[in-house]
Structures are given as C-alpha cells and as structure tokens.
Amino acid sequence: MDYFAQQLINGLVLGSIYGLIAIGYTMVYGIVGMINFAHGDVFMIGGFIALISFLVLVSVGLTAVPVILLIVLLVSMAITALYGWTIERIAYRPLRHSFRLAPMLSAIGMSFVLTNFSQVSQGARVKPVPPIITGGYTLHEGDSGFVVQLSNVQIVVVITTIVLLGLFTWLVSRTRLGRDMRACEQDQTMAALLGVDVDRTISMTFVIGAALAAVAGMMYLLYYGLVDFFMGFVAGIKAFTAAVLGGIGSLPGAMLGGLAIGLIETFWSAYFSVEYKDVAAFSILIVVLIFMPTGLLGRPEVEKV
Amino acid sequence: MSASLPPSSPFQSNGSEPVGAAFILKKAVLSALVALGLFSLMVGVRTEAGQSGQLEYWTRFGELASLVGAVFVGSIAVELLRLWLGPRGGFGSFVPASVQSGLSVAGRYLAPALLIFTFLVPVIFYNQRYILDLGILVLTYVMLGWGLNVVVGLAGLLDLGYVAFYAVGAYSYGLLSTTFGLSFWICLPLAGILAAFWGVLLGFPVLRLRGDYLAIVTLAFGEIIRLVLINWQEVTGGPNGVSGIPRPTLFGIPLTPGEGGLAAMLGIPFSPTHRIVFLFYLILALALLTNWVTIRLRRLPIGRAWEALREDEVACRALGINITTTKLTAFATGAMFGGFAGAFFATRQGFISPESFTFQESALVLAIVVLGGMGSQLGVALAALAMIGGFELFRSLEVYRMLVFGLAMVLIMIWRPRGIVGHRAPTVFLEKSKSISSDLVKEGHG
Q: Which residues on chain A are in Cβ contact (under 8 Å) with B358?
C-alpha cells in the first residue's frame, strides 16, 4: 500500500509535466489541424534555457532560491515562446494552404533542426545540475521500513502546474485572445470575416504552447536534475499520446491524459518492467487511436465530404 | 484550413506595402533582434560538465554576434531576392518554357543513361573501394526509397516507421542464419515474407486512421520494434546486436579465398573486391526488382486503386474500391521490399544492432521519397543519390549535417512541396482545382 501511494505521487508529478506539454499539442491541433512534431523539442529547448539561465544567475551571486526560480521560469518561458513564434512563422505559416502532408514533413524537419541545434551549440553530453530544491516531508512510515515521501520538488512541480493551468484556463475562457482562439478553432474564415486577426491568433497559440512547454522543461530539470539534447523526442511522443488519450482539441482532456500517461508509466515501471515503459506508453497511443479515436473528452470528428 | 483566406506567407509581399530600402532594413533589424533573443542563451553561453561533475559555463559572444550578423545580412539578401524574383517569386517562373521542355526531353534519356552508368560503376571504379561502398549505400537507400514509395507515394499513407520493416528483414536474416544456419538465398524471401507479415499486422489496426494520426501510429510502431529489439536480450542480443552474420554466396559458391571459392573455381587470383562487386550487383538487382514490380503493379487494378486512394479516400470508397485490401497490400508490398533491403543490409554489414534502426533512418528514407516527388521512380533514385552523396560530401562536418538536413526539409516543403525532382500527376484530375470550395479541402482530400 505504501509502495502504491509513493508510486501514485511520482506518477502524478510526472503526469503534470506531460500534461503541460500535451496542452501545446492539443491547442495547435485544435486551431490549425496539424501535429506540431517539433513541440517535444521545444520542451527540450525550454529545459536547456532554464538550465543556462539558472547557471548564470547562480554565478552572478544570487542566493535566494525562490527569486532564482521565478526569474528562471520567466526567462525560459519568454525565450521558448520566441522559439515557438519563430517556428510557426518560418516553417508552418507558409504551408498553411499547402497539401496535407507538407506541414507534417516541415515539422519533422524542424524537429531535427532543434535537436541538432542544441547538440551543436551545447554539446551532446547530458547536463546534470545539483538538486536546487531539497528536502521534503515523510507522509507515512510503514512497518517494513518503507517510507512514503513527498519531496519539496514534487510540491513545487504540482503547484506550478496548477497555478499555470488556472491562469491558462482564465486566458482561454475569459480574455479577448481566448475568444479569438476558440473562434478560429471553429471556423477560420468566419472568424476572419468578423474581424479576428487569424494570423496573430495562430501565432499566439504557438507562443502559449511553447511557454507551457518551457515550464514543463524547467520542471523536468528540477525534478530529474538533468537535461540532454535528445529528451524531446520520447517526451514529445508521450505528451502527444496524452493529448490523444484526453481527446485532441480538448484542454482539460490534455491535462487528464497527461496525468493518465504519467500514472500508467510509473505503475508499469513499478510493477512490471522499467525496460518496457516506453513500449507501454506507445502501445496505449495505438490502442486509443484504434478503439477510442476521440479520446476521453474529445468531440467526435464529423467527416465532411 | 480554408482556402479563401488571403495568403499571408512571409514569402509573398502583397503589394500594398511599399518595398523600399527602409522596409527591408526594418525587417532585417527585426529578424536580427529575434535571432538575438533566440540565440542569446543557447549560443551565447556554453555549458559543460566539468571534471568534478559540476556544471561549468563560459560565454561565446563572438559566435553569437556573428550569427546575429549572419541573420541580418541573410534577411536583407532574401528580401532583395524576393524583389528580384517578383511578388510571387516561385522558382517555376524563373525557368523559361523552352528550357523546361528541353529538360523533359533530357529527362526521358536520363533514366536509361543512369542505369547504364550504374551497371558500369564496378567496372570503372574497380580499384576504388570507397566509391563502390558508397554506391552500395546509395543503392540501398534507392531500394528503401522505392519500397516506401509504394506506401507514401502511391497509396498516400504517411509511414514514419518504415525502418521497422528494414529491421525485421535484417533481424530475420541475422537470426535465421546464425541460429539455424540457413543461407542467404533461403532467408531473403523469408525476410521479405516476415516483413510483409508485420506490414499487414501494422496495417490492420491503422486502417481507419488517416493523415497525421497514421503518421504518429507508424512512428510509435517503429519505436516499439526498436525498443523490443533492445530489451528482448535472449533472442535479439539486446544492444549488442547480432554479429557473425554469414556473407552471401553466389548461389552456394562462397566468395572466399582457397578451395571451393569462386576465385579458385574460375582460376583467377582472389581479391576481396570480388565480394564488394558482387554485393553491388546484388543490391542493384534487388533495387531493380523493386522498381520493376512497382511499375508493373501500377498498371494493375491494385496500383490504380492505390493512386485513387492517395487522391481521395472517400471518393474511393464511394466507387466501391475495397479500402481494406488496398491499404493492406500497400503496407505489405512496401514492407516486403523493406525486408529485402534489411536482409541485404545484414549480410553486407555482418553485424546488426538496434542502433541502425532509429527514427532518423525512417525520416531519411521519407525525405528521399518526398524530395523525389512522391510517386516518381526516377525522382526517388535521384533524391537518394543527392541525399546520401551529400551526406558523404559533408562527412567532415558530421555534427552539422543533420542540422542542414532538417533545414533542407523545411525549405523544400516551403519552396517545392511536391518535390524538387518532379512529381507524378494523378492519371485523372480536375482541371480547375482552384474552384473547390474551402469546406471540401479538409483532411484526407489531398
């Protein structure tokens, strides 16, 4: 039971990270109908920028951990958002009216560019950081000596996720931008006729998605204490799986899917085999797409002829 | 997704904006500022784990400045180029019609000329082992490209996990020959059949998926196969792979020195080049087989059904074409050729490991098919030559070549989305495709 509780905590934390990435996939799919294949690499870039800004801040003599974390968060969100904007501008916008495979292939190309750009600019080796947030609470001590722990990092990850999700939900449901986004999602032509700047709205979608991916990247860095240039690929596919599982196009669905994938992966590693945890996640993707293509919270896609 | 929106590509200036020196300069300054933002931390600061495992960093402002400067100059150059090419500067408009027709005439003779040259390569470059090896590599990718072309180019099913079938073929031969001692010529068809079987196995569940979803599922499938190869140590040898895979024989005659070898039987002195030349002709024969089968299949009802499926799945169904068999045969045929290529790869290398079957490999083969113009046999061959040859040319710049590869993929999608070399038009098409209204051009309708 204690073991189960510990895995539950770990799974929820991992799931929060996946959920943050999954929102980027689901938003972009909702609005332009393409899988942003490079989104996993945007997450990786976010992690790198968090790492570098953290190093620089520490070396200039800042010691207050909350201040450092806040600045790192803002810097990595801002710069990664700029990446998202640039990617959309360069690789996707010219292809919006092209044939249907073109954006996908362009996105694959962009993913290679980002992966290899960070390999070239930062080297191929794994970058470890010492634990930034230490300590934690012991929730329960079992008879067998097994301790259920909730570390401070885990608390930070979950709370940051919740706060950002609240902010994001407010943005989508209450602001002008959110209304424009929902309008573009339903009918771009009509939205344009009613005075919505479609290009700007799509750009903003990419910017917000990238900013959330940057948060996920920073959380990953805090939680696992390392980044490397290849981490975006697998994380990206898993987050996409989460988006599909939750129902692509649905924002609460993406978070729910993220949590589900995080839990499944953690429990699979805990009770079956660590080696096959990725196989489990990828199999879920295939199974969901076959038997439940609309996901948990998605709307059925009506095929127009 | 709607066609009636005003085009808003940055590669088209819409005429209303004054394109003057000030405009160009403003755009270049903006681009340079964006570049400064993008590269400030990623390039300006370099991190590395130091001796004690502690992360260290140093600054590289020189590189940062030169990159930003390059973006500034590049932006001005692109703007000037666009001015020069006119408002809708496409490359098509820049080649005169007479040159284009001349090119198409040359194109007709290109394929036979290329084929004859390929046959002569081992004769001309007999003493240059490097060129022969490179030729074998190019031909392997030509074969893979032609195999994937059946799935992507003809049937229009975007397959990102093609390397899985290549792996199945390679491991089939590797394991069958090292475990049961079966010879290459028995294993080759077996590898093809096994790969085709896996193709059908993948095909069944994804029958209902289309477009992007299909791409992601095939990608996941490819990764699953690779992960199983890594982790199922008892059978596949795990990350260590399979080694000691037997070399191919000329229908039972080994290409070895000494008694019973081909050289001894023919009474000529032994040379290791014999085996390379043999491998060259072997992969050439396999590639030509792929090409021949594809061309023949295209003329059969199934080939027509593939092309119809590529153009419009719903219309296909309405015409009574059996989507299930059409898709499954496409997957199986493509996978079979992938399996053949895999078996060849195993016998050529003598050693296989999961590292050879990563997603990058799938993307490379896909890029070859896309650059070749999705459906054009000659285009795929030329694209393979250009890509693999290009990779070899930039071998010294190892770390940059995947970066350039990715950039090239993006740029080609923007400039020539239907491929640089050419593209095979559907046999029947609507003359005025522009008049289709926006709600008809949703996903799955080409």
A: none
CB contact under 8 A, B413 and A100: no
To probe the interface with A, which of B55, B64, B209, B355 has the most A CB atoms within 10 Å?
B55
Cβ neighbours of A128 in B, within 8 Å: 49, 53, 55
pLDDT digits (tens, 9 = 90+) for B123-137: 787 778 888 888 999
Q: Is A98 in contact with B413 (Cβ distance < 8 A)?
A: yes
Pairwise pLDDT comparison (A201 vs B91), residue with the higher score? A201
- Side-chain half-sphere CA neighbours of A98 within 13 A: 23
Is residue A277 scored above 80 in pLDDT?
A: yes
Q: What is the arithmetic mean of pLDDT over A124-140?
A: 81
What's the whole-number mean pLDDT along residues A103-125? 89
ipTM computed for the complex: 0.85
> B184-242: per-residue pLDDT in tens?
888 899 999 999 999 998 888 777 776 678 888 888 889 899 999 998 888 888 888 88
Query: Which domains, ranges and CATH numbers included, belong to chain B?
Result: 2-88 (no CATH), 127-415 (1.10.3470)
Q: Which residues of B touch A89 (CB under 8 A)?
A: 10
Residue A146 C-alpha, separation from nearest chain B C-alpha, in angstroms: 30
Using a CB-CB cut-off of 8 Å, the residues of chain A touching B440 are 304-305
Query: Which of B60, B206, B409 to mutate to probe the A interface, most A CBs <10 Å?
Result: B409
Cβ–Cβ of A82/B45 closer than 8 Å? Answer: no
Q: Among B6-15, B161-170, B392-401, name the most confident range.
A: B161-170
Which residues contact residue B411 at a Cβ distance below 8 angstroms, ignoring those fewer than 6 apart? none
Identify residue B191 by its one-letter amino acid code: A
Share of chain A above pLDDT 90, in %: 37
- Give the torsion sign (CA, B303, B307, B310, B314): negative
Average pLDDT, chain B: 80
B1 to A32: CB separation less than 8 angstroms, yes or no: yes
What 3 state SS string does chain A have?
A: CHHHHHHHHHHHHHHHHHHHHHHHHHHHHHHHCCCCCCHHHHHHHHHHHHHHHHHHHHHCCCCCHHHHHHHHHHHHHHHHHHHHHHHHHHHHHHHCCCCCCHHHHHHHHHHHHHHHHHHHHHCCCCEECCCCCCCEEEEEECCCCCEEEEEHHHHHHHHHHHHHHHHHHHHHHHCHHHHHHHHHHHCHHHHHHCCCCHHHHHHHHHHHHHHHHHHHHHHHHHHHCEECCCHHHHHHHHHHHHHHHHCCCCHHHHHHHHHHHHHHHHHHHHHCCCCCHHHHHHHHHHHHHHHCCCCCCCCCCCCCC
Three-state SS letters, B212-257: HHHHHHHHHHHHHHHHHHHHCHHHHCHHHCEECCCCCCECCECCCC
Mean pLDDT of all residues in B59-70: 89
CA distance A270 to chain B (A): 17
**Tell me, what DSSP letter sits at residue B93?**
G
pLDDT of residue A35: 85
* Residues in a beta bridge with A136: A151
